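Input record, target 12 of the design panel.
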């Protein structure tokens, strides 16, 4: 059904982060896009949660269920 094209992959995303970023006006001109700084992984709890997610993904990929994937 699905062709084998390479190794299995899992991605890890962080929903509802504890950290916050900011938006700043880059110019007083309305045509200029604002500046976004998302401050990803700046909060210690966000770092911990992503690390746990990555470790869980590794366990899944190393499990017997994924042996032939």
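The sequence produced for target 12 reads:
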């Amino acid at each position: 059904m699905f062709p084998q094209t390479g190794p299995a992959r899992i991605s890890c995303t962080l929903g509802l982060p504890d950290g916050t970023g900011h938006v700043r006006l880059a110019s007083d001109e309305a045509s200029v896009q604002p500046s976004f700084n998302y401050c990803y992984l700046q909060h210690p709890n966000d770092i911990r949660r992503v690390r746990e997610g990555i470790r869980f993904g590794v366990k899944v990929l190393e499990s017997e269920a994924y042996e032939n994937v």
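Residues 37-69 form one domain.
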